[in-house]
Amino acid sequence: MPSCIFCKIISDEAPADILYRDERVTAFRDIHPIASTHILIVPNKHIVSVNEVTPEDETLLGYLFTIAKEIAKQENVAESGYKLIVNTGPDAGQVVFHLHMHLIGGRRIRTR
Ligand code: 5GP
Ligand code: ZN
Q: Which residues line ligand 1 (CB under 6 A)?
């Protein structure tokens, strides 16, 4: 998706502080962190939101949790705790319409 900022980050057309990347998933720091650890874990496939998920995506989306667990360890929040959030649609505050998981941990977790 040429106009999608996350597709551009995934393909290196836009800069980001990338922590992890493989053929299925890219993880990078949120540009406006709301806690000391705030990372976005993004499938490389452009899926608009949870509303567009299909059964074929099940393995890929499960894999986001595997990567989340590894990144939580690397960021030293695995034991202290963290939230995994997937906003869907306007009322949830989704602003980037490429499905992504927020990993939020450390001090000042203000989200529910
Ligand atoms: P949403 O509200 O859609 O779940 O979250 C989108 C998140 O992406 C926001 O927390 C926002 O700060 C982050 N974001 C938006 N544009 C960029 C960008 O260009 N680079 C990075 N690293 N994060 C972004
Ligand atoms: Zn995209």
A: 5, 16, 28-32, 40, 87, 93-96
Q: Is residue 110 part of a domain?
A: no
What are the structure tokens assigned to 72, written together?
Answer: 């939580």
CATH number at residue 35: 3.30.428.10
- Measured distance CA(96)–CA(74) in Å, rounded: 26
Taking the whole predicted model, whether its pTM rises above 0.85 is answered as yes
The token duo for 25 is 């998933």
Boundaries of domain holding 20? 5-105
Q: Tens digit of pLDDT for each residue in 43-97?
A: 999 999 999 999 999 999 999 999 999 999 999 999 999 999 999 999 999 999 9
> Residue 110 — φ and ψ, nearest 5°?
-105, -5
Q: Is 100 a catalytic residue?
A: yes
Number of domains the chain is built from: 1
